[in-house]
Amino acid sequence: MLPLVALVGRPNVGKSTLFNALTRSRAALVHDEPGVTRDRHYGVCRRVEDRPFMVVDTGGISGEDEGLAGLTAQQSGAAIDEADIVVFVVDAKHAPLPVDEEILRRLRRTGKPVLLALNKIDAADAHEAGAEYARLGVADVIRLSAAHQRGVDELVDEILERLPETADAAVEEVEPDRLRVAIVGRPNVGKSTLVNRLVGEERVIASSVPGTTRDSIHVDTERDGHKYRLIDTAGIRRKSKVDEAVEKFSIIKTLRAIEEAQVVIFMLDASEGVTDQDASVLGQVLDAGRALVIAVNKWDGLSTYQREQTRAALDRRLVFVPWAESVTISAAHGSGLRELLRAVQRAHRSAGFQFTTSDLTRVVEAAVEAHPPPPVGGHAAKLRFAHPGGTHPPTAVIHGGRVNKLPDNYKRYLENYLRQHYKLVGTPLKLEFRQGENPYADKVNPLTERQVRQRRRLVRHSKR
């Protein structure tokens, strides 16, 4: 395991900006509004190639113990407990507050190395800034400006001097066999509760307040011998209700999480059914070509009659994704989660299915023989051969003549035929049609003298 460095402090002192600077990424959501970060966000600092270490960004500690502020403080406390070094980030342009002194007292009680990072320092006042923080009695002080990348290398040097030397410090974070699963849906449908239940701890903040999750949080876990990277995302509302800049950035991060994922779990509230906004988000998943599993949450709270009505509504509203498996679950109580992960595995296997040219051509020929293409304009399309075009989603490229005239219902027939033959579930299936070129299109066949005389006779005969 890589050593861990925790970034803690009051809200809006620049912890997320420093996190992005250390990891050389834009993984953490940054905004001037205090309290944007709420959950723990992990990344790897590789500014010194042979000495990488983990960095965890935390929410601001405001001194409150109730509501979201209290839950955020608990997440910060968990990061402090697991860290090897703590970087206490403060805003050097403002005098220390009582909450700063309380945070420092808590850090000292842990007995762990503490670095004081005086952030937001301009070049002109680099020597004078932070004089008021001298009374806190922290020996190791680093002046920096995370937004302008000043002083970050000095902070890394101070961290590396205090980190333990580990034999496996150079182990890469990338794990090809870890399945990336994004959990998306509207606000307050239980996405964070599902993540916590799958992980087995309060890894992310789960609250009844809509919009609790603002950033995309990556959480690694292992279930039934399979490795997963769960991506908890912010809930997506209708555009007409999105008026905050932070929420707009959260939606962008959610869309990026969909692109990054291999399988998307789309969560619905069983008591609310499928809304127009749900259909819009599902459209984003389809556009990205991602494997899809639909999780109908809060199923345990419905009566038998309500369940029947909900099933009928789901079949009616989700008719455009009939290939996606729907699993009824209760994230709060843990029911249905085993079947949910099995559906995720089935969808992932189907998404990675690789066609072969010979077999795919035979299957297309069988489909045409069972139901030939309808004639359009007096001529029917001729499908000659097919070959694979890629995976995630599986793609079949079909060549032939007049394929640009194939009606949409026949294309859907071919898709369903291939899906049924190869037993593909939980993944889109992409068909590409390539129009064959006419080999005689540019060739001119001149008439003989006899053919010219026959043509003249036919013309004279037709005029009579």
From TrEMBL:
Instruction: Report the residue ranges that make up the EngA-type G domain in this protein.
Output: 3-167, 179-352
Q: Which residues cross the membrane?
A: none
InterPro entries, from UniProt? AAA+_ATPase, G_ENGA, GTP-bd, GTPase_Der, KH_dom-like, KH_dom-like_a/b, P-loop_NTPase, Small_GTP-bd
Q: Which GO terms describe its biological process?
A: ribosome biogenesis
User: Which CDD domains has this protein been placed in?
Assistant: EngA1, EngA2
Question: Per UniProt, where does GTP 2 bind?
Answer: 185-192, 232-236, 297-300
Q: Which PROSITE patterns match?
A: G_ENGA
Provide this UniProt record's keywords sorted from A to Z: GTP-binding, Hydrolase, Nucleotide-binding, Repeat, Ribosome biogenesis
- On the tree of life, the source organism's domain of life is Bacteria
Q: Which residues bind GTP 1?
A: 9-16, 57-61, 119-122
SMART domains found in the cross-reference section: AAA
* Coiled coil region boundaries: none
Q: Name one GO molecular function term.
A: ribosome binding
**Family to which this protein belongs:** Belongs to the TRAFAC class TrmE-Era-EngA-EngB-Septin-like GTPase superfamily. EngA (Der) GTPase family.
| Quaternary assembly | Associates with the 50S ribosomal subunit.
Name the job this protein performs. GTPase that plays an essential role in the late steps of ribosome biogenesis.
Q: What is this protein called?
A: GTPase Der
Q: Which organism is it from?
A: Denitratimonas tolerans
Gene label:
der
